[in-house]
Amino acid sequence: MPLEGLPPSASSPQKSPARRKRRRSGTGLSLFWRTFFLLALMLLGSALAWYQLFRTLEHEPRAIQSARQVASLVNLSRAALIHSDAIARISLIKTLAEQEKVRIAPHEPDDRFTLFDNSPLEQRISEELVARLGPGTLVASRVNDEPGLWVGFSIEGDSYWLLMDRSRVSAVLGGGAWLLWIVGLCATSLVGAALLARLINRPLKDLAVAAASVRSGDYVGHRLEENVASREVREVNVGFNRMADQLSQIELDRARMLAGISHDLRTPLARLRLETEMSVPDEQAREHMAADIAQVDSIINKFLDYARPEEVEMHPVSLAEVIEGCIYPFSTREDIRINATIPLDLRVMADEVELGRVFSNLIENARRYGKTPGTGITTVDISTNLHEGRVFVRVRDHGPGVSADNLPKLTRPFFRGDSARTEATGAGLGLSIVVKMVQNMGGLLRLTNSLEGTGLVATIRLQQATAQPQTGSRRNGRSRKADPQA
């Protein structure tokens, strides 16, 4: 599984199925979306439950009440027609049509009609009308292709149709208004769920950002708000800020302690070296003692580098010039050979001094522990690769490599590798210092065993300063054409 931000060529070998399973188990919906979906489901379920409760307790009773009103209208119209003479009956029919929008028409034997029973509620209204108007009553929604609410009844053996506006019962039968109401309710519920989920998860998101800041070493960059309304969130924020303050003070005390101890040791160490050179008559013993003193001095330098403050000044730096400067001190040694292929115009965003320390530490680490088996000589290959505005610098030796169990531990302070890589003449801080410096410059360090057989590979990811075409390269400090595989 490739490291985030590294190109496929820099990927490590395939991880075990157990590690892939652990990675898959960590994926899924964020807390915001889980909260949103749960709240949305709750609100929509509540809305549907209220709608069903309304249909049960209010909708059907209102429909039956409307059916009773229609039945009363039919009964009144029938009674008025029965008790009026022929002339008054015509006037009555005209008045009903003009003022009440009720039309009475004869029921012919060849009339075509559609019964009013398309839904359970319409069937219930029809049953109520039949129960109130008598067994011979017909309730239709369309007669001779004319829509409306048609009620068929008899007067002294003659059959009639009474046509009224369907709106008398359509208000309780639903329709487009109910659909719009449900859609509006769902939309309001979703918006409310999103706002609630954001409000609930915002403190957790702020806490995650602050925790990431503390993990990267910035203890005061993202302080949490201590005056929030919620008591629980306020207590968590106050506790986290106090913890960050204590960690910042502990880190400052540690750096001061290391720097002070290292600085105080240098003065007696210098006197000891001078006294050794002047008072020890045996030349071989004097050389060994001087070497031991130099080793102690080197360890003190490592402590000073490790305790160095994390503030760096980032600016465009020529990668070829920095690496050439790091290679130069090793050019006269017989136990190391360095092959570097770096484009001349490749520039990265970094601190030039810190970047030089990074490559010096990596080359020195390879010189000590990366000797080619059977030769006693270390061969180091340095190459670059560009990917999406990022520069990947690859430093590889041809030594015995590192066991898979020890690879993740190499960057821990004071850790030394297995017996194949333990010329233990240092403090075990070299790679820890490299990781710290690279992270301070916004980069990333990754250590793997070479896929080509032997050797340890250190891959450094840096931000490219300018995207320019590659026109040349440096190989051991001499300008040559760029390696197409770099």
From TrEMBL:
Catalytic reaction list: ATP + protein L-histidine = ADP + protein N-phospho-L-histidine
Ranges for domain Histidine kinase: 260-466
Polar residues bias spans: 464-474
This protein's UniProt keywords: ATP-binding, Cell inner membrane, Cell membrane, Kinase, Membrane, Nucleotide-binding, Phosphoprotein, Transferase, Transmembrane, Transmembrane helix, Two-component regulatory system
One Pfam family here: HATPase_c
GO molecular function: ATP binding; phosphorelay sensor kinase activity
E.C. number(s) listed in UniProt: 2.7.13.3
Biased composition (Low complexity): 7-16
The protein, known as: histidine kinase
